[in-house]
């Protein structure tokens, strides 16, 4: 029997579905062994509503009703794991499907099959700004491209001390803005662009309407120059098939540490930094967790800042404009030497830091980013 193009696409899509616990192809790098941020459990498990055979039959019946070109779009997104630029997959928004005893909307079912088997409700999702449907309301059609969505990372309240700094490390609030000691900074070495100090560089960039600048660090040394950001969204990656943005893989580094080299290789698709109406969101596009510390992620009265763990496929609001307006400056002993032109968020790849780790300071992390926001 001859196989049609459509049936071939459907078979390839089913083979590329998101693995669930118990599958031989389960990839813990993609799903993680725990939850997002503060340890909230999102362990991937087999769907208890319907058998694997029922899921396969339902998915095949849905895919066979989709046009060939749309199947190709979906396949491109799924096989590249979001690395290839794929257009929106617009499908009817009011079509419901039933799996076992539970009903799912068509988009939700596709998101479950191809990205998050443990997904239960659309409220757990956030649409990415790369989607043409972002910010638009169409009652008839909705984008079902699973890689135009991210899992929403919400903080628990009150947050447990996942990675809280010891109080002994904190600088007294009435301390002068002098150069911190090496114990406070981890002996961080700044390498400003030729002819400019970091403070002058940030100030010059802010005058050009850049909403933030990004610096890439390997342990205690910055690699490359400050990367200024004007566009609403920026991809920061080591290797991305169709990526435009801040490519860390192109930066020349003299660091010979095996750990740094290993982490650099694991950055992969990296993160997406997006400026939206209420603040700045960070989307983890890589296959490994990232760690974030921001003054607006915690209680403004707190004298310590928590380090938040964000698993692959999750988004977190790393910087909140309204909260930032209420803060005079980041309450952080580590970066008291930063220029006062904005707030700073630190993001490390793969390896975390803080009280739960041997690395007490981010400057001990193999690969990390410093994002300085312009508050003008």
Structure overview:
With 376 residues, this protein is of the alpha+beta class. A hairpin with a 3-residue loop joins strand 11 (271-275) and strand 12 (279-284). The strands form four sheets. Strands 4-6-15-12-11-9-10 form a seven-stranded mixed sheet. A six-stranded antiparallel sheet has the order 8-7-17-16-13-14. The protein has helices at 5-15, 28-31, 52-63, 68-79, 106-114, 182-185, 198-206, 258-267, 321-325, and strands spanning 90-92, 96-99, 102-105, 125-127, 141-143, 149-152, 212-218, 221-229, 233-237, 245-247, 271-275, 279-284, 290-293, 308-310, 314-320, 344-349, 368-373. The protein starts with a helix and ends with a strand. Residues 24-36, 38-49, 157-197 and 334-341 have low confidence and may be disordered. It is built from nine helices and 17 strands. Helix 1 (5-15) runs parallel beside helix 4.
């Amino acid at each position: 029997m001859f196989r049609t193009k459509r049936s071939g696409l459907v078979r390839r899509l089913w083979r590329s579905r998101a693995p669930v616990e118990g599958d031989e192809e389960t990839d813990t790098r993609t799903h993680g062994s725990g939850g997002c941020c503060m340890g909230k459990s999102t362990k991937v498990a087999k769907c208890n509503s319907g058998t694997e055979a029922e899921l396969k039959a339902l998915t095949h019946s849905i895919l066979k009703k989709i046009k060939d070109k749309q199947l190709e779009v979906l396949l491109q997104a799924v096989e590249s794991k979001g690395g290839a630029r794929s257009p929106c997959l617009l499908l009817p928004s009011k079509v419901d499907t039933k799996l076992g005893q539970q009903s799912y909307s068509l988009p939700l079912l596709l998101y479950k099959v191809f990205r998050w088997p443990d997904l239960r409700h659309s409220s757990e999702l956030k649409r990415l700004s790369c989607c043409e449907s972002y910010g638009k309301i169409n009652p008839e059609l909705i984008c079902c491209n699973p890689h135009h969505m991210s899992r929403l990372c919400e903080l628990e309240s009150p947050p447990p001390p996942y990675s809280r700094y010891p109080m002994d490390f904190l600088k007294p609030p009435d301390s002068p803005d002098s150069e911190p000691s090496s114990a406070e900074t981890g002996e961080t070495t700044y390498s400003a662009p030729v002819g400019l100090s970091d403070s002058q560089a940030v100030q010059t960039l802010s005058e050009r309407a850049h909403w933030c600048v990004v610096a890439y660090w390997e342990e205690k040394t910055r690699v490359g120059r400050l990367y200024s950001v004007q566009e609403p969204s920026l991809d920061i990656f080591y290797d991305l098939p169709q990526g435009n943005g801040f490519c860390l893989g192109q930066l020349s580094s003299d660091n010979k540490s095996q750990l740094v080299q290993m982490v650099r290789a694991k950055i992969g698709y990296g993160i997406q930094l997006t400026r939206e109406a209420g603040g700045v969101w960070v989307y983890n596009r890589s296959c490994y967790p990232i760690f974030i510390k921001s003054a607006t992620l915690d209680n403004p009265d707190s004298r310590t800042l928590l380090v938040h763990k964000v698993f692959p496929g999750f988004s977190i609001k790393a910087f909140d404009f309204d909260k930032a307006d209420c803060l005079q400056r980041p309450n952080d002993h580590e970066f008291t030497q930063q220029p006062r032109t904005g707030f700073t968020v630190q993001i490390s790849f793969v390896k975390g830091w803080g009280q739960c780790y041997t690395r007490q300071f981010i400057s001990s992390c193999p690969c990390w980013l410093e994002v300085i926001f312009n508050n003008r």
